[in-house]
């Protein structure tokens, strides 16, 4: 019975996981709004080296939106359990925050395990809501960002999973291991290596929550930096046509 329920849940996931929605009437919770407002002041702490790669992907997003095309972003790590999900969720949140529509975000790994509860809890502390179907060893999580924002349904999977795009997408390699082991990503228009330190090394230590919160905050700030850049550039392009 559990297998049947899981298959039905995955089928639902494949259809609705993108949370592709309009940004017109999005309303974040007070907690998440407060968290998001703290991110822009962190932009000047991002190194020039990292900004170079983030802006390269930002230019890809701009290219797609100027052409009035949907923009798919795929975040890849090893086990698809922590950083790639954080990046997927924060990139989508940033697109809504800055009013950039037609953005869909995805994640995957070079292998599949399960979404790590410590990563989920870090997102919750930031104001993201998360609930699980609690089925099997690799449960599906429902991620909420705000009113009228749709939902992201996530679970651990390989990056070539059927749910993820096969062409016309930008690939972000968010860990050094995946960056080294996957020099090319089939179907990707662009591939960017932007590694984040893995918080798993602090699991079950006194620093666990602190380190997960730090990584969550860094990823959020860098995704917001990218979409802030996209927003500014799109405004300039619009004004230049007047």
Largest sheet: 4 strands, parallel
| Main β-sheet, spatial strand arrangement | 3-2-8-9
Rg over alpha carbons: 17 Å
Provide the number of structural domains. Answer: 1
The residue ranges in which pLDDT falls below 50 over 5 or more consecutive positions are: 1-21
Structural class, by secondary structure, is alpha/beta
Please give the CATH architecture: 3-Layer(aba) Sandwich
The CATH topology: Rossmann fold
Number of strands: 9
What does this entry look like structurally?
Helix 6 links the parallel strand 8 (169-173) and strand 9. It is built from seven helices and nine strands; from the N terminus they run H-E-H-H-E-H-E-H-E-E-E-E-E-H-E-H. By secondary structure, the chain is of the alpha/beta class. The longest helix has 33 residues, at 208-240.
Please tag this protein with its features.
44% helix; Rossmann fold; disordered N terminus; 242 residues; four-stranded parallel sheet
Give the SSE map.
Elements: H1 2-16, E1 27-28, H2 30-37, H3 48-66, E2 71-77, H4 83-97, E3 103-109, H5 117-126, E4 129-132, E5 141-144, E6 146-147, E7 151-154, E8 169-173, H6 176-181, E9 188-193, H7 208-240
Parallel strand pairs: 2-3, 2-8, 8-9
Antiparallel strand pairs: 1-6, 4-5, 5-7
């Amino acid at each position: 019975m559990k297998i049947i329920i899981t298959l039905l849940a995955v089928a639902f996931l494949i259809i609705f996981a993108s949370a592709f929605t309009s940004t017109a009437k999005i309303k974040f919770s007070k907690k998440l709004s407060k968290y998001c407002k703290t991110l822009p002041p962190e932009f000047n702490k991002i190194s020039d080296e990292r900004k170079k790669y983030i802006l390269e992907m930002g230019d890809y997003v701009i290219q797609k939106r100027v052409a009035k095309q949907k923009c798919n972003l795929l975040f890849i790590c090893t086990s698809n359990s922590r950083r790639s999900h954080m990046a997927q969720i924060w990139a989508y949140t940033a697109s809504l925050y800055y009013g950039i529509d037609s953005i869909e975000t995805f994640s995957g790994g070079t292998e599949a395990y399960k979404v790590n509860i410590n990563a989920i809890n870090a997102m919750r502390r930031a104001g993201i809501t998360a609930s699980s179907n609690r089925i099997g060893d690799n449960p599906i999580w429902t991620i909420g960002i705000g009113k009228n924002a749709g939902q992201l349904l996530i679970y651990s999977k390989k990056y070539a999973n059927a749910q993820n795009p096969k062409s016309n997408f930008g690939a972000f390699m968010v860990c050094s291991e995946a960056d080294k082991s996957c020099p090319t990503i089939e179907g990707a228009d662009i591939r960017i290596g932007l590694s984040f330190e893995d918080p798993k090394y602090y699991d079950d230590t006194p620093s666990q929550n602190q380190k997960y919160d730090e990584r969550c905050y860094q990823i959020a700030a860098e995704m917001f930096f990218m979409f802030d850049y996209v927003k500014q550039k799109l405004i300039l392009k619009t004004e230049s046509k007047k």
